[in-house]
Amino acid sequence: MNTYYNKELAYKYIKEAIDDGLSKMGNPQLSDLICDTWITYSRDILDLTTKSYNPSILLNYLRIISNFDNSILPYQKISICLEYLIGILKLL
After folding, report:
1. Is the pTM of this model over 0.85?
2. Which of 25, 49, 59, 67 could form a disulfide with 10 if both were Cys (CB 3.0 to 4.6 A apart)?
């Protein structure tokens, strides 16, 4: 098992996910499908970049997104996710 962790790459990929999420929030036709696709993408980025560094980062994110229900609008979901990702980015 390779335990090498590249903090710079993790920062880069998480930042790209944040930038993409911000651009999605600017779309007035943001749909649930686009939102859910982005949430899956951001989850996968966290899985790839933080699993070997600190698995609780992904677990906390999974807890957040598992609490989403149909009453939360797509831009609100992305906003909540972005808030978490930005906080993680500050820790890296």
Report:
1. yes
2. 49
